[in-house]
Amino acid sequence: MADIYIRGGWIITMDSSRRIIRDGAVAVEDGEVRAVGKREVLDKDYRYYSDIVINAERDIVMPGLINTHVHLAQGLLRACADYLPLIPWLKDRVWPLQGNYRPEEALASAKLVTLEMIKSGTTAFLETGLVGRYGVDNIVEFLHGSGIRAAIARHVMDLKGYALEENILHEGLVEPGDTSFNDTLRLHGKYHGWDNRIWIWFGPRTPGAVSLELYRKISEKAKELKTGITMHLAEVRDDVEYTVKTFGKKPVEFAHWLGLTGPNVVLVHVVWVSDDEIRLLGETGTSVSHNPSSNMKLASGAARVSDMLSNGVNVALGTDGGPSNNTYDLVREMKHTALLQPLRTLRADAIRAEQVLEMATINGARALMIDNITGSIEISKRADIIVIDYWNPHLHPLNNPVSHIVYAASGHDVKHSIIDGRLVMFDRKTLTLDEEEIIEEAEKAAWNLYNRAGICREPDVIWPLV
Fold first, then answer.
1. What is the Cα–Cα distance from 50 to 5, expressed in whole angstroms?
2. Largest CB tally within 10 Å, which of 53, 56, 83, 256?
3. Cβ contact 125:68 at 8 Å
4. Under 8 Å CB-to-CB from 194, ≥6 apart: which residues?
5. Strands 2-12 and 24-29: what pairing?
6. At what angle do helices 330-345 and 353-360 cross, to 10 degrees?
7. In angstroms, rounded to a whole number, what is the distance separating the alpha carbons of residues 381 and 422?
């Protein structure tokens, strides 16, 4: 007998042999995958002896998606910073808005983002850096109640700059080094490992906002606590100019020098890197979070993902935040990943759909150091499973489910979601969150924030508003 039995059309397992099972089924019991195989074999044991039977013969069943770069506090900032490159985007729009947040508004943003991720197939994610003014404890406790898996980085900083520009961080986001570091330790002691779904990481700010001493302190403490570190790196050319001019090191060399490489590190964007740096990432087992929509929208450049993969780098996917992407839909991000590499290299075979799907699932699990429990549908792994409805014109004829998911699907095609063996969305309706309440709270919170900050109160359109 199983708690949940899914009678699927196609099962994309992402197991070690990457099996795709036609007319397959998955049995879930006590939160874990108990059986996976052909329907005709498993039906006799589970079809009539399970608490919940999901008939998914016209669906694709696959592991939940893992988003390795999320800004929970930017959910309210969509369309508030369009048409700007990174540093003006941060300095003039995003940081002033985030520096004006009140805890209830930050929580409303986190709720909105989490709702969107669950409804578009994300079952685990990495938050890149929360600050004290957001009310971190309330956000962590909400995330636990939502049912999602989350590695939550707390921002750590002791300077106010970005690359060669000093003192540009908005005063509302400035925190002393001891305060931000010690609060990370407090959060780690309180929440890390909660139900094996919540983890607390270090989120040092970008070079220019953290001293060398503090970077090294973070590296040492993360190793001692056996937790992770995530940091933006080499997103724009200014990052390279800063580390080379100031320290005589390229960005990845700089990170490695400070102990910020290794299997417990997720470096984000990593656009402007050399061949030697790519090899160093592969040799150290450092993960990279690729965020193509953000890189394209902010004109930051195209990361060398196909080169990284061929050098053994664990590359995963991230959506980034509301103002740099405008959605948190990781299914859409797969298509952008698949299209950007052929454009960058002028090679149609620069990357395959299978590689992109790995980036969104098992590679993401490896980046979050949870590939022993999730990222694939395998016996004894926790049941983090999504069901995609392919009975739609844009997904027919279904002659290649992997290609269709990467090139043709969107998060709106996700029908059911199971996290840790718990059904959190069924027939597009979330079972752990009040969708209407979250959207209403977010709308109210956003306008309070815009009015207080004096930003984003009018649409940035060139057409007449009447």
1. 6
2. 56
3. yes
4. 144
5. antiparallel
6. 140
7. 14
For residue 427, with 0-12 CB atoms within 10 Å meaning exposed, 13-18 middle and 19 or more buried, which class applies? exposed
Six-digit token pair at 241? 């100019």
> Angle CA(420)–CA(376)–CA(309) in degrees, nearest 5?
135
Instruction: Please give the Cα distance from 250 to 276 (Å, whole number).
Output: 10
In the chain, what are the domain boundaries?
2-63+377-429, 65-367
User: What distance in Å separates the CA atoms of residue 460 and residue 190, rounded to the nearest whole number?
Assistant: 42
CA distance 26 to 62: 10
Tens of pLDDT along the chain (466 residues) come to: 799 999 989 999 999 999 999 999 999 999 999 999 999 999 999 999 999 999 999 999 999 999 999 999 999 999 999 999 999 999 999 999 999 999 999 999 999 999 999 999 999 999 999 999 999 999 999 999 999 999 999 999 999 999 989 999 999 999 999 999 999 999 999 999 999 999 999 999 999 999 999 999 999 999 999 999 999 999 999 999 999 999 999 999 999 999 999 999 999 999 999 999 999 999 999 999 999 999 999 999 999 999 999 999 999 999 999 999 999 999 999 999 999 999 999 999 999 999 999 999 999 999 999 999 999 999 999 999 999 999 999 999 999 999 999 999 999 999 999 999 999 999 999 999 999 999 999 999 999 999 999 999 999 999 999 9
Q: Do domains 2-63+377-429 and 65-367 have the same CATH topology?
A: no
CATH superfamily of 2-63+377-429: Urease, subunit C, domain 1 (2.30.40.10)
Cα-Cα-Cα-Cα dihedral sign, residues 164, 167, 172, 174: positive
Cα(36)–Cα(345) distance, integer angstroms:
39
> What is each CA distance from 149 to 68, 127, 422, 425, in whole angstroms?
12, 11, 12, 14
Strand bridging mode 422-426 / 287-290: unpaired
> Strand 429-430 relative to strand 422-426: parallel, antiparallel, unpaired?
antiparallel
Within 8 A by CB and 6+ apart from 218, the residues are 156, 181, 202, 204, 210, 229, 260
Q: pTM, whole model, 2 decimals? A: 0.98
Cα-based torsion angle of the residue sequence 164, 318, 187, 137 in order, rounded to the nearest 10 degrees: 110
So what CATH class is 65-367? Answer: alpha beta
* HSE of 98, CA atoms in CB hemisphere, 13 A: 27
